[in-house]
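Q: Mind making up any chain with structure tokens?
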Amino acid sequence: MSFARWQLQVSDRFAALYGRLGNWLARRLRHHFYLVLALMISVFAVVDAFYLHKLFDLRQTSFDTLVRHRLLTTPPDPDIVILDIDEASLAQLAPELGRWPWPRQVLGDVLGQIQAQQPRALVFDILFSEPDVYNPDSDAAFDAFLKDCRQCYLPWVRLNASQDGQSDLRAARVPGAVRLGPGEATVAGILPYFPAGLAAGRLGFNSTTPDPDGIIRKYGVHETLGGVRLASLPARVLQDSGLKLASLPENVLLNWRGKPFSYRYISFADLYRDSLSETPKRPRDELRDKIVIIGSTAPSLFDIKASPVADQFPGVEIVATAIDNLKHDDYLRVPPLRWLYLLLALGLVWATAWSFYRHAAPEKLARWFGLSQVFLLALSYASLNLSHYYINLLGPVSFSIAYFTLAKLYAFATRHALEDNAWTQSLALPDTAPRCAELAWLQLVDERGAPMSEALLDKLCASLPKPIQAAAMSLAGSQYSSWRMLEGGLLFSHLAHPDAKPLLDADTLRSQAEAWIAATGLERYRLCACSVQQAMLNAELPARAVWQGLLAQALAQPVQPPTKAEARV
């Protein structure tokens, strides 16, 4: 057996099983399935909102997509400059300084010249955890530089909190820690080696913890352990400018300024060469009042992280972004609107369920549902572009799409079993139950012969009396070639007792249509066909053949002559 034939057989068996499942559900639940499904989705939404926190909270992949494709982003602060020990610096200075790490006196000499320009802060994104045993004089010179530097800030590494109990380092003894109340706790961390840096107390932890998928989205601002508050490096830098940590959350969602290398970068090699030159070319005040961050973008030094905006993002620029966010107080906020999100999700699910239950037109339902989802997603996207708040509507969208998808699958599987019109009713009648089958065809076109739109047809249908309205079905927009003759029309089908008065009447339908045209001011439309056909259903001819004959007669009806009002126009 060929693979193609095997595929066809599997497809046929799946289609048959899908159809049988649909018929089985239709016999037991009929249209109540839509309400049962809405109840099940609603229960899951409530559980997720208060216990699971999977869809209503920040959804990582969707959030990353919105952030990565923002049209409007806040520009990076021009007063934040990165002194970059990049790959080019490592290569150019290797003949003179050797491989990294270089003697620390080199950093002190270059940064001493920057300090003379009176920068606002010199922030190290380099951990000095151990002495350079091969260059003790160099370490001594760098320690002396730190002692005289009033703008220098050093990082320390905050290790995993699970190791706090095994550490001998007390949180209260970390330089720069602030005592808030009684209590003692130890903290797992690695402090810098240099005594002058420790004595100055301008220290902050610089440990970014990625989310479970390995992507950095948040930055720790401060942490409280045993009545002691520990500040992060960005927070410690801005504390001296009046930043109040008590008003900030422990973690902030970073408001990225764009792709990597959005900030101003200065290559360390360029600054080093210029500092040794007899005739320096760089301005002597180019870094005045700047926050200078010393770090590395060289891949060989392994300070590259994954972020929502790029898979490879320099760690030093993450520090710059955190400082920028805290300085301008524009980190991303996620408003605690869980109740509102839950109510919106339930409203969307039950509105869609009621539309399915009440047999809303499939095309119209799909159109309005799609527009509602696009609107909610656009609102979330706009919140990231126009503000520093993230209105996370992905939860309500996810629940409503899940409901709509399952409901459409059920509707497709039961589309024949749940049909409720005169045609299907007649097929279910016993042969001994005669009925009168009525079928009418109404068509309107404009002065160019173009058919009436589906929206106008729906409005015309809504103006008809309720019994006639219930028998109507609009045809518009889906036919091709010669079948377009069916567009712009209303098809009516009705099944009545032989002794009952006919529901459908050509004069009534014609007058109703003309009255509606006059009331709405759509005089450019005219009634080009209005045909009513009737036949008895009995055992002599199958019901299907009777309806087909009525439809053929209705379509073959000659064009109706214009009314006097139409003739005057």
Notes: Confidence is low (pLDDT under 50) at residues 564-569. The first strand starts at residue 80 and ends at 84. Residues 240 and 414 are 69 Å apart (CA to CA).
